[in-house]
Amino acid sequence: MKKSIDWAEANAACEALTEQQDSLTRDIVTRLAEKWTLWALAELAEADAPLRFSRLMERVEGVSQKSLTKVLRQLERDGLVTRAVFAEVPPRVEYAITDLALEMLELVHPLWQWTTVNIAKFEAAHATYDHEVPARVKRA
Amino acid sequence: MKKSIDWAEANAACEALTEQQDSLTRDIVTRLAEKWTLWALAELAEADAPLRFSRLMERVEGVSQKSLTKVLRQLERDGLVTRAVFAEVPPRVEYAITDLALEMLELVHPLWQWTTVNIAKFEAAHATYDHEVPARVKRA
DNA sequence: GCTTGTACTTACCTGGAGGTAACTAATGAA
DNA sequence: TTCATTAGTTACCTCCAGGTAAGTACAAGC
């Protein structure tokens, strides 16, 4: 079994963090996996220019105002997007992705790619499981 | 602004998937970010040998029986762990990580590493945000 | 005959994600 | 005067992750 990562060492590195830092790392990664976060970041990355709230909402198809607002607040707090308010009527607010977020996306991308490339393996695993497992369910 | 990934192209690749496959990809990635999933996988990877349910539960500190069971069922269904039941009393069940999961962990690891390395930037961003934003809150 | 150990399952509860729908402030246009 | 526009906020609802606590089956050991 190939093993390129030394997991004992990796785990030790994690435990070197304070408990607070460790939980922050988890929070960041968890947040990335929330329903709209990656999508919003990807759209901002693709646009390669600041986007108004409403333009972004059009691109992130299906998101609600409430959810988009929340996601953007979180991303702003994490330093992954910037928010610029213009004192105009009607209001104009522009969101842009930061270099920090672009760095992060560079690392997320291979994982996403890998998953899509291997999607057939997952479908096969599901089919096997769904076929075999009913047999081990107890009868009433 | 450096831009090593062609996001337009990346997005096009995503849209080439069926809607069902796209949602499956999201499910897989979302599952990875659930509370105990990565931890359990990392322990199985570190052990480098099958682990009994109770041994794994000791290693994944703080997880409940219910949650660990659920996570393992999902991972088994996704083909990321194997489950071997021995017809003994008391029961013995051994879980092992698959090569598919090891491949995936190789891609998750850099992301996690990057996050821990940059933890100070996130802490700084939070401090800035928490300091500045109260000023833009409306007064009652 | 009662306890112990293992790997669960089940019932019950709480918190938070995320959805819909309605409300808001400010101003230029009709 | 009334409407449209923008970027929200708020109330209300449902679903699900995840926690605790207790129950289950079976045999070996005291």
From TrEMBL, chains A, B:
Database matches in InterPro entries: HTH_HxlR, WH-like_DNA-bd_sf, WH_DNA-bd_sf
Keyword annotations from UniProtKB, A to Z: DNA-binding, Transcription, Transcription regulation
Keyword Transcription annotated: yes
SUPFAM superfamilies noted in UniProt: Winged helix' DNA-binding domain (SSF46785)
UniProt GO MF annotations: DNA binding
Top-rank lineage group of the source organism: Bacteria
Chain ranges of the HTH hxlR-type domain: 14-123
Annotated protein name in UniProt: DNA-binding HxlR family transcriptional regulator
